[in-house]
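Homework-ish question, so no full write-ups if that breaks the rules, but can someone show me the predicted structure for this set?
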Amino acid sequence: MTHSQNKSSALMQGVVIFVYLAVLTVIEYFIAVAFDAVPLLIVVAVIKAGLVVYYYMHIYQLNADDGDDEHSYRYKTGTNRIGLWLFLLSDAFVFAGLMVMRANLLGMTRPHLNQTLGLVVTAVLLVSSFFMNRGETAMKHGDVKAFMNNTLVTFVLGLGFFLGVVFVEWRIAAHEGLTASFGNPSVGPVGGVFYMMTGMHAFHVLTGLIFLGVVWNNARKGVYSAEQHWGVEAAAVYWHFVDLVWIFFYPALYLIGTAV
Amino acid sequence: MKKFFSSALARGLFWQLIGLLAGAGLVTGIRALMGLSTTDTFFFTEPAWVLGGFISALFFLVGSGVTSDWIKWARGIDTPDHHEDHHTGWEKYINLSLDHKVIGIQYTLVALVLIGIGGLFALIFRTELAASELQFLTEDIKLFGQNGPQLYNTLMSLHGMIMIVSILLGISGIINYVVPLLLGAQDMAFPRLNAFSYWIAVPAAVLLLMSLFLGGFDTGWTGYPPLSARAPVGMQMFFLGVFVAGWSSILGALNVIVTVLRMRAKGMTAMKMPIFVWAAIATSLIALTATQLIGLSFQLVMFQRLLGMGFFDPAKGGNPVLFQHLFWFYSHPAVYVFVLPGLGVISELLPVFVRKPLFGYRWIAMSSLGIALVGFVVWAHHMFTSGMNEYLRVPFMYSTLLVAVPTGVKFFSWVATMWKGKISTPTPMLFVLGAIVVFLMGGLSGPPNATVSTDLHLHDTYFIVGHFHDTIFGGFVFPFFAAIYYWYPKATGRKMNETLGKLHFWLMTPSFFVLTFLMMYTGLIGMRRRIADYDPALGIDFYHLLMTIAGYLIAISVIIFLYNFFVSMKKGEKAEGNVWNSRSPEWQVPSPMPVHNYDQPFEVVGEPYDYGLKDSTYVRFVESAKSAHK
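A: Not a homework solution, just the prediction itself:
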């Protein structure tokens, strides 16, 4: 691992990016309420995604110099990194397919959902990404204790998001007549689309939580060091990817179009 | 026999059965507690079969032991980079191995088994088609909850998907065996993921075949709703099997790309890679990304059936045409997944047997990528009659016709490579030449389907069936056989019998031409695809009889091939040297290949295909300190 940044500036960067993301989310919400301008929402989502991909997922590391020794940990990490990103690329096609489905079946309508709850779960996931970034930065500088604490916070927030969507959001939606089986013909396909998209995302959150649990436990056992912690990096990148998906799903489900 | 029962394969299958019962039992128990019905036509209810099928695949993977290293890593236990194979002889191929060569052969063997099963299904329904009216698949017979015509539909549908899975496994077989050797790598980038990609295909094939016994399904391999939304339980097993098999394709493709990016020998720049590697990259890019969409579209139908989420049910506000868009976004590029490696084999082998440089190396490399990329924007040409928006037809027609450009580049290059060459025709070269001619027929019969005005007539006729059998035989089957005949000595140290090989070729090729020409011709005069019976007034009974005879001759030729394949392992002529006089690195070392491939690493010092040029070499082996103490 190259120490291109010292620890405090890396942590500071995480804070700044988090503030940007939070402000952009608020702007996004107000654009939706005030103008209902879809192109503008797309622009904001793309900017947020770019920030996450660059500053939290460190996509530029794909280009890092890994040395020449094929048997070194550094070289193997570089290889693993390409593999992980290709997997994420592949996975992104699933979510893109779901977005296409949403656009085709719902067009400029959206499910009638609890907006406050939507903002809360979005914020929870965003904050979890912030702590994930702190945890990974700590591990890069060999601070296992700080890594474990931050990852624990990430885990709890992630669990909160998962439970919030599945046991609160779904329940409220079902109470208000949004059923998976499109029970009410006047509602149209909106229920199925909502449950499929949030369900697929929640499934990825769940796998991310398992991943976080595994690296936390391994860190406890002392498997990772400042130089060798591919597992931590992979878990962090995957976690940010789950957040990345939500950056697009949140406006698609909560903000775009008119509620039916 | 004892060796079989203690193998990873047998353990996996045993645990798959346990998983199936556990999953199905769980759902049945929950249903009983909820006061819902617990049994159905096929004993378990549909949700029980689906969850059971899904869990059975997971149990297979854990039970066969392919995930055990990963489980150890998750618990913080380190494992050695390589495990030595304890097994020798045939047991090696039914046990876990991380060696890409063993995995490549495992893939190939399963592909051959599935080709056998899919071919058998084809023979059964081809026999029924030999004359008009129903002869033996009549409505009186009852098998697996299906009458004769329904069984015809199931066999016809399964023939399609089983062949597709077998092709995917076949290309993985060639790529797995050959690509690391061509690159000078010791193994694939992720050996465990490689093993996982292979082993996950086995439970997938089992699930796929289970659909035959659970009422079958009658949608053809495309599984379009609304028909697939109300077909018997077999439909769900079909969806599940394809979904699981898709992961084999996705993860295998990921591995190939990373291997090529990271593990090339010294000096092997992009434009000095063997041309087959370019084909492998192009095909992997499609398989990695587009495959997710067939998985998603099938999942959506599964959820529609299980939970009533009517994504594709117009009565509930859904849209059946959406399924077709999602499905073809994979399933059209999928045919390029099938043919690109085959075309790569042609380009790879042709210079060896004409002793001349490959004409236009860069153009061939780029045309593979070109086909792959254009392939992403042509899908709706399958939907000209679907009722999609009419303005979409013309752009998709043009993008489809555009595919002919990079494909044409390949043909010109092959012809120019052969021009004035010293052509010799051992069996692999025969199949290469056969592939070129057959693929040309497939290519020429393509534009009529791509052009909207003619496709409106041709859609869903036997013409289409003739067309795609030509492209798939030319683009995959012939090159696959060529690759097996060509690399067989590398894998076994023995050659396959030349006389039997030639018999295979000369029996299969003319029969195949008769079959597909008649398919296209009868299609033009009114034969529809996917039907169990046709009107005798069409006057095509005799052609169907000829097609059936041709089908049987192809089957006989494949049996000759299989005999040759298995007998030559023990009795074939010894061939430990550079039998084809090739410049490629894998032929510069004795056969069969040592376990960790090259004892000495090589570096690339010239162009790969400079055959016939004096004093030019492609690779040079170097002494290295690392290889000395191995």
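Now go work out the reasoning yourself. Hint: Residues 148-183 of chain B form the longest helix (36 residues).
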